[in-house]
Amino acid sequence: MAYDLSDLKTRTDLAASLAQALAARYADPARARANWGDHDPETMLVKRLARDALWDDEVRRQADRHGLDTIVIDGSIPVADLASRLAARFWLES
Q: Phi and psi for 60 in degrees, rounded to 5?
């Protein structure tokens, strides 16, 4: 069943279910091995972050090419400001 993300602000049961699902997903050793391999976790993290940076750059290039704007979520914007920007972007403000 799909939910509008704005429901998470008012329905704590949905937020809790999402948190439980994510915890189970990332606590599963088989899934972790499939995602990270059997190599040194620190080395794999560095490689994964480098790969993610390349992906982010490509997505931003494509968004720009199509006239779409993006919001960079890198910790430099206070959470309350970021939440306001995202709410405005997705028309969640009342």
A: -65, -40
> Tens digits of per-residue pLDDT, 40-81?
777 888 888 898 999 999 999 999 999 998 888 888 989 999
* Euclidean distance between CA atoms 82 and 76, whole angstroms: 10
Count of alpha carbons within 13 angstroms of residue 9, beta-carbon side: 10
Let me know how long the chain is.
94
Predicted TM-score (pTM) of this structure: 0.49
Query: What is the rounded distance in angstroms from the CA atom of residue 29 to the CA atom of residue 90?
Result: 36
Q: 């329905």: which residue's tokens?
A: 11
**Three-state SS annotation for the chain:** CCCCCCHHHHCHHHHHHHHHHHHHHHHCHHHHHHHHCCCCHHHHHHHHHHHHHHHHHHHHHHHHHCCCCCCCCCCCCCHHHHHHHHHHHCCCCC
